[in-house]
Amino acid sequence: MASRVTPMGGAGEEMGEITLSEGLKIGHPRIDDQHELLLKVLRDLKDLIAAEAAIADSAKRLCEFIRLMEEHFVDEEKLLRELRYGAEEVDAHALHHREVIATLQSLAAECTAIESYTLGLVEELLRLFFNEVIAADMKIKTHLQKIGFRSE
């Protein structure tokens, strides 16, 4: 990937506010709203872990994040086809989505196996979200600009 997006400070620093800046929005309301919802779930997970909530609560929130991510990917792929994004590009983007979901499921399985949810998990989820999901979606932003898409 050509560029990296860093949502927080470097290793060892306290996690900063988890937000999606205007520059990281792709310009399609449905997708941007879904991205914001995904970040809200991550903020909630961070808060649960920081408050040392019950493991079951953190597990439930992580499962919700993965479910919402899966739904987002299905919706995004459908939208790409509607917007006449190239067929090969849609297929490549969908493959990337499957890889992200596999990584998320692996992380969830690790947390379940060791019965532990830490802020390190949230940092890893944020890294994945910003560096894999949002960064990949910047190509969609370029496509929307190219076709002159305007939200109504």
Please explain how this structure is put together.
The longest helix is centred in the middle third of the chain and has 28 residues, at 55-82. The protein has helices spanning 29-50, 55-82, 87-114, 119-146. The protein is built from four helices and no strands. The model is unreliable at 1-13 (pLDDT under 50). With 152 residues, it is mainly α.
What is the element layout, followed by pairings?
Blueprint: H1 29-50, H2 55-82, H3 87-114, H4 119-146
Give a count of the beta strands, DSSP E runs of length 2 or more.
0
Q: Please, how many helices?
A: 4
Q: Major β-sheet, in short?
A: none
| Helical residues, percent | 55-70%
Overall outline:
elongated
Could you give the distance between the termini?
32 Å
Order of helices and strands: HHHH
User: Which class do the helix and strand fractions yield?
Assistant: mainly alpha
Which stretches of 5+ consecutive residues score pLDDT under 50?
Answer: 1-13
Structural Rg: 16 Å
What is the beta-strand fraction? under 5%
Question: Mean pLDDT, nearest integer?
Answer: 89
Describe what is shown at a glance.
The chain has helices at 29-50, 55-82, 87-114, 119-146. It is mainly alpha-helical and 152 residues long.
Question: How would you describe this structure in keywords?
Answer:
single chain; 152 residues; mainly alpha; 4 helices; 0% strand; elongated; disordered N terminus
